[in-house]
Amino acid sequence: VQLVESGGGSVQAGASLKLSCVASGHTFRNNGWFHQAPGKEREFVALINSDGSTNYADSVKGRFTISRDNAKNTVYLQMNNLKPEDTATYYCAGDLRKVVGGGWLVSKWGQGTHITVSS
To answer: Helix (H, G, I), strand (E, B), or coil: what is residue 84?
Structure first.
């Protein structure tokens, strides 16, 4: 079972990037994206369920869009109007659920892809 992310890079503030996450070996009930900035904890960014419903962190609502292509076993994160504070390593997650206390339980993580947004 693997999740492999791609699409990271370095951009200027206001630019767009699209991350991809290809799943192999398992069909996940849902998928999500988290990010982790240097020296900070990993944080929830977005989630998409098997019925297509989505959920976003307040910090990315209106700028990021999560989507999935079931035929390609791929989950995407379209990131528009990027800000320097979006700089982080972005991790794809499979089979995640929120737990008491506000944290997340994740069955499978990808290896991460890094984005840098300069002002």
So the answer is: helix
Rounded to the nearest integer, the mean pLDDT of the chain is 96
Closest C-alpha among 59, 58, 104, 95 to residue 75: 95
Residue from 81, 109, 73 nearest 94 by CA: 109
Query: Above 90 in pLDDT, residue 26?
Result: no
d(CA 110, CA 1): 10
**Residue 45's beta-bridge partner residues?**
none
Q: Which residues pair with 19 in a beta bridge?
A: 77
Alpha carbon distance 25, 40 (integer Å): 31
Three-class SS of residue 7? Answer: coil
Encoded amino acid at 5, one letter: E
